[in-house]
Amino acid sequence: MTAPKANAMKKTTKPAGAVRPKLAQEGFFGRSGYFFARALANLRQNVFVSVVTVGTISLALLIAALFLLVYVNLEGLANGWSDKVQITAYFDKEPAPLAVAALKTTVKSIPGTKSVTFISKQEAESRLRARLKGQESLLEGVNADVLPASLEIRLDREHRDNFAVTHYVAALKKVQGIGEVQYGEEWVQRFNTFMNFFRLMGLLLGSFLTIAVLFIVSNTIKLTIYARKEELELLSLVGATRFFIKAPFLIEGVLQGALGALLSLLALAGCYFAFLHNAGSFLGVNPAGAGLSFLSPLHLAVILGGGVLLGFIGSLTSLRRFVNV
């Protein structure tokens, strides 16, 4: 063997137990860059499947977001309406001025009371005449003695459901001097029943959409795994860890979920502002006067986080079944 060849072999042959030199991109950032690069490559290699997955996630989250938007505005309207709902307690006999303050203090001590207003017989007559302005003939022979004095009571928001109102009225009737109590029982029950039904429908719809998105994302990742099955087996044979193999697929699911959530929020914003722009013409409603509002930053963050979580869980479910390394 000639001298040059021997020198070349000495330069290229590593002694036993030699440590492999670190790559320039090795470490946390290097591995993260590799994982993201592989995830993006997977998306480019399966463009049609990825587009279908992102579109499905967007549609599912858009439906859920629209439902949430309607619910939030209904809750706002409900709070506005419930602020106007009051309990009216009529006296059998108008109390003396000195007794009114004591009665108001007693009523205010009942848990749930927000405000108490005393309405005398004279004030009740003035209100009635103001409401029937232009139809004074209907009030001929009616005077203040015919109308009862009353207390108008407003409740705080925590005591406006059926059970709380019923319990409050029962306590109110025990106050001495109070006779009949009216509070629109039928309206309160119907409205609370409607809101409970709406919440139940939202829960069922959200559960169905969640299962559908998880199924679609999981099957999308399965197709990617099948297409690269030989490559994954080779990585396993050369000693790649489970995390090293799974990470690109998990990132792929997260990217699909995040992109789907962003698209759904953009579509939701477009639908919302289009509705605001045209509501006055085809509904005859002033959106500003109706108190309509868009989702809060917290709700938007929840939708975005939900898309990311759905993508991650869908990928993780698929990998647990098909990557046994």
TrEMBL record:
It is found in: Cell inner membrane. GO terms for cellular component: cell division site; plasma membrane. It holds the Pfam family FtsX. It is a multi-pass membrane protein. InterPro entries: ABC3_permease_C, FtsX, FtsX_ECD, FtsX_proteobact-type. The keyword Iron does not apply. GO terms for biological process: cell division. Its main location: membrane. Residues 85-181 form the FtsX extracellular domain. Keywords: Cell cycle, Cell division, Cell inner membrane, Cell membrane, Membrane, Transmembrane, Transmembrane helix. Gene3D superfamilies: 3.30.70.3040. The chain crosses the membrane at residues 47-72, 197-218, 249-275, 295-319. Residues 206-324 form the ABC3 transporter permease C-terminal domain. PANTHER family: CELL DIVISION PROTEIN FTSX. Belongs to the ABC-4 integral membrane protein family. FtsX subfamily. Forms a membrane-associated complex with FtsE. This is Cell division protein FtsX. It comes from Geomonas silvestris. The gene is ftsX.
